[in-house]
Amino acid sequence: VEFCKGINGLDKVILREVRSSAEVYLYGGHVTSWKNDHGEELLFVSSKAQFKPPKAIRGGIPICFPQFGGQGNLEQHGFARNKIWSVETDPPPFPTVNSNKAFVDLILKPSEDDMKTWPHSYEFRLRITLGPGGDLMLTSRIRNTNADGKPFTFTFAYHTYFSVSDISEVRVEGLETIDYLDNLQNRERFTEQGDAITFEGEVDKVYVSTPTKIAILDHEKKRTFVLRKDGLPDAVVWNPWDKKAKAMADFGDDEYKHMLCVEAAVVEKPITLKPGEEWKGRQELSAVPSSYCSGQ
Ligand code: BG6
User: Fold this and answer.
1) Is the ipTM of this complex over 0.90?
2) pLDDT digit string (tens) for 278-289?
3) How many whole angstroms separate alpha carbon 233 and alpha carbon 261?
4) Would you state the pLDDT for residue 292?
5) How much is the pLDDT for 97?
6) Annotated catalytic residue 284
7) Residues 159, 114, 50, 126: what is their CA dihedral angle, to the nearest 10 degrees?
8) Which of the two residues, 204 and 97, has the higher pLDDT score?
9) 151 cis-preceded (ω within 30 degrees of 0)
10) Does 82 contact ligand 1 (Cβ within 6 A)?
């Protein structure tokens, strides 16, 4: 584990395992790189991404908290991705500690100013772990530390941008026949058809109560990403396609071809925590050659 300066002098942490690596910016508690043991980048970060607070970094794994989406008077996808997190050297024990792994513990707590926009006190602990096989694990623990006895409610997402060679060759498995809320149609509810999902245009769907394992098959790269999740019942699938891509200042016009967001999330049924209660949500990513996965 190495602490250093990244783009625009922002602090970052580098995790290394035998040959794989990951990079985390304290700005946003944001994973911006995950490389396999051939040094290949597995996450998409836009060439136009700005590493300038308060604009969230376009790509990698933004943390959406305390809301997914843009409801109410909170900013779109909440403020966690726009805050500078701290490294926590001695967090309360995590249930699954493995000292052989490279990991970093981050923490976010509200300032007095922050409490003007969201009037709650919380401790958000995020452990980012790179396993010996190159797997990337993110574990979030959010605790209500309100002194006034008040509960709070939130939604959440690990807004993961996977790097893919060609979106029209990508298939997503694990969401067949699952109900989804379509963000492009006023969050109306539909049921997905029975085949693996493929992409021919803009997609912005919140799949609800999905299986815990979702696979993203990149035919051209012969690579399969496997996403496993715990405590995160929903999964968002997003690709802006050409028109929306052009409308985003921090996203290249053609970059939609090389990314896909599949986001382990809690959207449909928000979490409510009473003071002293803690919620946990975990996402585990692995990238394997496709041949290993055939028939699974
Ligand atoms: C997705 C949402 O998760 O994030 C989309 O479902 C949204 O509606 C996209 O456009 C990107 O959001 P932002 O705030 O990072 O531009």
Assistant:
1) yes
2) 999 999 999 999
3) 16
4) 52
5) 57
6) no
7) -40
8) 204
9) no
10) no
Q: Is-catalytic flag, 88?
A: no
Extract long-range pairs of 290-296: CB within 8 Å, 24+ residues apart.
Answer: 290/217, 290/218, 290/219, 290/222, 290/223, 290/224, 291/222, 292/224, 293/215, 293/217, 293/224, 293/226, 296/215
Q: Which of 159, 173, 255, 284 is catalytic?
A: 159
Q: Are 250 and 256 in contact, with CB atoms under 8 Å apart?
A: no
Please list, in sequence order, all residues whose beta carbon lies within 8 angstroms of the beta carbon of residue 257, skipping any fewer than 6 positions away. 166, 167, 168
CA 294–ligand 1 middle distance (angstroms): 31
Average pLDDT, the chain: 95
Q: What distance in angstroms lies between residue 100's CA and the mean position of ligand 1's atoms?
A: 35
Both tokens of 115, joined, read 């409490």
Segment 130-143 shows an average pLDDT of: 96
Closest residue to atom 8 of ligand 1, CA basis: 204
pLDDT tier at 113, thresholds 50, 70, 90: confident
Given a cut of 50, whether residue 191 has pLDDT beyond it is yes
Q: How far is the CA of 18 from the centre of ligand 1 (A)?
A: 34
Q: Which two tokens stand for residue 140?
A: 């979030």
CA distance 197 to 171: 5
pLDDT at 101: 77
